[in-house]
Amino acid sequence: EAAHVEGFAKECAVVTHYRLKNDPAGAGIIVDPEAKLEEELIIRPTSETIIWNTYKTWIQSYRDLPVLLNQWCNVVRWEMRTRLFLRTAEFLWQEGHTAHATKQEAVDEAEQMLNIYADFVENYMAVPVIKGVKTPTERFAGAEETYCIEALMQDGKALQAGTSHFLGQNFAKAFDVKFSDKNNNLDYVWATSWGMSTRLIGALVMAHSDDDGLVLPPKIAPLQVVIVPIYKGDEQLEIITGKVNQIVKELKDLGISVKYDNSDNARPGWKFAEYEMKGVPVRIAIGKRDIEKNVAEVARRDTKEKMSVDISGLSSYIKNLLDEMQLNIYNRSKQNLEGHITKADTWNEFVEILDNKAGFISAHWDGTAETEEKIKELTKATIRCIPLNNKQENGKCILTGNPSTQRVLFARAY
RNA sequence: CGGGAGGUAGUUCAGCCCGGUUAGAAUACCUGGUUUGGGACCAGGGGGUCGCUGGUUCGAAUCCAGUCCUCCCGACCA
Q1: Is the pTM of this model over 0.80?
Q2: From the alpha carbon of A296, which nucleotide's C1' atom is closest?
Q3: What is d(CA A306, CA A217) in angstroms, rounded to the nearest whole number?
Q4: Banded model confidence at residue A25, pLDDT cuts 50, 70, 90
Q5: What pLDDT digit, counting tens, does each position of A73-131 carry?
Q6: CA at A76, C1' at B47: how many angstroms apart?
Q7: Which of A41, A108, A214, A295 could form a disulfide with A15 if both were Cys (CB 3.0 to 4.6 A apart)?
Q8: Rounded CA–C1' distance between A36 and B49, in angstroms
Q9: Is the pLDDT of residue A23 over 80?
C-alpha cells in the first residue's frame, strides 16, 4: 500500500468542511467556517483501498476465489493542469478488481482484460492500439506489472487508452487478505485491477475527426443514418415522406438506427452541415428529382463521397456501406499509426524524428530509470510501452550507448 | 505552484496604445416577404450597469491601483 499511497497522495482532493452558507457580508456563497470536519475525507483517486478493505472480509478460503468486482464510478485526481476529456479533475470510469488463488490466474486475468480493452477500442472505436507493458517508472503505483494499450492521435501524440495491472500480493499484504488453499496452507491472494475512462471520448474525437467535425465509426454512432428530405411545398413532402417511411422501416429491420429529419425549421444545407459536424456516418437525401428516377443520394461521412443509389436496393447497400466505413475508418487510423512508428538508432535521429515527424519511435534503451528520466527531461518523450511479444535484438541505448536487448516505444504523450 | 494572454450584445470579437456624440461588427434572436439539391436572400426590429471595487479627471470601456475569474504553456498525470 505504501507505494500506492505514495503514488496518489500528491493528487488527492480533501474535504475539510461539510457546509456552505450565504456570506453575511454579501460575497455570495462561502464555506461555513463553523462546519470544519474533525476528520477530513479524502476523495478517492481510485478504489483499491476500499475494495481491498472489503475483500478482507469476504475472502477466507480458496472456495471464495476468484472474486471480481466491476464498478462505474467517478474519481477525483487533483491534477495541476487539466485537459478537456483527456485529463479532467473528476472523471467517470470503469474499474475492475479481482482476487485470485494463484499468480498465474491473476496474470492471465490482467492480460485478458488488456485484450478486451484492445478489442473494444480497435473493433468498435476503430482506433488501432499497441499492446504493451509499462516500464517500472511508468507503472501504476503499487503494481508489479502494468499492461497498457497505446493509441496515436492525428497530431502525432500518443494517448494511453486503457490499462490493466497485475498487482501481485501487494494489496493482499497491505490489507491482510489471506486464504486457505486445499491443503489448508494460508497464503495471500493475488490481485489485478484495470480501468478505462471517459478519456476514450477524447481519443475518439482526436483519432478520427476532420475540419468538418466528428467522424464516428458506425458501430458506436448513436445515430447511423439520417435522412433529409428536399422539397418545395407540402405536396412534395408528402410524396417523399411516403417513400422515406418505407426506407426507414427497411433500415430498422436491419438493425440500423435511423432518423428522418423532416423538421421545417432548418434548410437542407444547414442540416447537411449539422449532421456532418455531429459525425453521423451516412446521410441520405431524397428530393423530387430522385423520386422520379427511384434513387436517393447517399453521402458517407468518412470520405465525404456522394453516390446515387437505387432505392430498391438501398437498405442492403447502406448495411454494407456501414460495415465498409467501420473498416475504412479503422484502416485509415491504422495507416497513420503504422506510418508513425519510426526506428531511430542515433540520438540525433531520435530528436529529429520527434520534432519533425512525431509519433512513436522505436529505439534501444539501456533499461535504467535514470536514462528514461534523462530522455524525458531532454525531449519530453516518455517510454510509452514495451510492446508485447517484442523482438529481442542486441543494440546500443539511444542516449548512453550502453548495451540493450530490445527496442522500446518512445513518444510525446497526452 | 511558476510564466504568459485575456474578461465589451446569446456567441465570436473590434474599439483601449493616443480619455471626448447615443459603445460597434459578424453571427445568433424577433417580425414580414421571397425561398428550400451544401450552413438562404431582402426589409425592418430587439438586445450591453464594457468582470468587480476604488482612484485620477470637467469627462473613463479607454489611464492607475486592488480584486475575482477564464484560457494557454510548464511541472504533475488516466
Answers
A1: yes
A2: B37
A3: 18
A4: low
A5: 999 888 878 888 888 888 899 999 999 999 999 999 999 999 999 999 999 999 999 99
A6: 41
A7: A41
A8: 38
A9: no
Phi then psi for residue A103, to 5 deg, are -60, -45
Helices and strands counted in chain A (H then E): 11, 22
Residues A136-180: pLDDT tens digits?
999 988 899 999 999 999 989 999 999 999 999 999 999 999 999
Is there a contact between A206 and A249 (Cβ–Cβ < 8 Å)? no
Query: Rounded to an integer, what distance in angstroms lies between the CA atom of residue A105 and that of residue A115?
Result: 15
Q: What are phi and psi of A87, to 5 degrees?
A: -150, 90
Sorted by sequence, the CB contacts under 8 Å of residue A111 that are 6+ apart come out as: A147, A164
In sequence order, what are the residues at sequence separation of 6 or more whose Cβ sits closer than 8 angstroms to the Cβ of residue A313?
A: none
What pLDDT score was predicted for residue A26? 62
Nearest nucleotide (C1') to alpha carbon of A283: B38
Q: Strands A306-310 and A341-343: what pairing? A: unpaired
**On chain B, which bases lie within 7 A of the protein's CB atoms?**
1, 35-40, 72-78
Distances (CA, A) of A354 to A148, A177, A208, A303, A362: 22, 46, 22, 29, 11
Measured CA A97 to C1' B22 distance, in angstroms: 68
The C-alpha atoms of residue A295 and residue A286 are separated, in whole angstroms, by 8
Q: What is the DSSP letter of A390?
A: P
How many Å from the CA of A246 to C1' of B30?
A: 38
Of all nucleotides, the one whose C1′ comes closest to residue A240's CA is B37
As a rounded value in angstroms, the CA-to-C1' distance for A5 and B25 is 55
